[in-house]
Prior knowledge:
Helix content is 44%, strand content 24%. The protein has 16 helices and 14 strands. Helix 4 crosses helix 13. The longest helix has 14 residues. It is globular, with a radius of gyration of 22 Å. The mean pLDDT is 93.
Amino acid sequence: MDAERKIVELLKERGCLLQSEIVNELKLAKSTVSEVLKKLEREGLIVRERVAGKSYRVWYFESSPKPCEILRVGILRASEYPHILLALKDLDVKYSIKVFDSALKLTKEISSGRIDVGFSPFITQTVFAIILKSMKIHAIVALNGSGIAYKGRLDECKVFATSEFSAMESNLKLALESFGLDIFNLTFRYFDSVENALKNFKSCEYDAIALWEPYLTALKSEKVYFKDIIGDFPCCSMASSLEFYKERRDVVRDFVRCIRESLHKVEKLKEVMARELSKLIGFNWKIVLRSFESYKFVCKLDESNFRFLERYGLKLTPENIRCVADPIVKG
Length: 331
């Protein structure tokens, strides 16, 4: 294994090291490490920061808490992203896409600055942005796209599984109340892994499960879609870390513009984008394609989106909204 590959593999594994630690751990010459790091820095694969004298701290770009040359984009293992992938093709920047299983983990990574721009539930991003004040929301990019899978009759279900602190949980409770069910007499189980939750559902540990696409389309079970009960609702939104927003506002602006322009192309390119997205999220492309029908793909942000959150019990003041929303793209 050559020096460059060794250094990249070490940084991928450890995330961050002092330059001197790379020299010691790999037993390479200082000059060799210095030359390789300069090359990797030019390519955008690492970020270096001087800490004292000639000493540098080195991050692999995916682990850096600071913006880097490569745009780090985070998405969920979900299917609301055909227009996002189209927009990235038109955006004149190098980028890397990371897929997350957890909306909480992805939103934390945006807030910490390890993801520059991420697409996760609107309610989750809003709460993080208000509490931590370390991210900005730029646009709602998808409506709907989730529902309940259940066994038997929905009104006889007693144990419900859902992801915590998400649109899934909020919509589930809204939907059950609209059916006249007393949610305080029901049991809610929260999961981090949808794969494990689906196994438990199939083994009858849960009576029903709140799911997003394409899991909902892929599951053979009785289903009801949230949009058919509560109407259209903001599902996924685009947010950036505050530091990235301050340093690369032009990229944010261009990204939003490209997403808006891509909306006119999605219908004609659905099959192509289903195939591309399926490679990222690990689903059969035909299931991804069918799941697109559950969504309305959009790119907008206004006060009505935040007012919808009142249905989840989250009431924002005008000051909260100004703090959370990017005024450049609001409207």
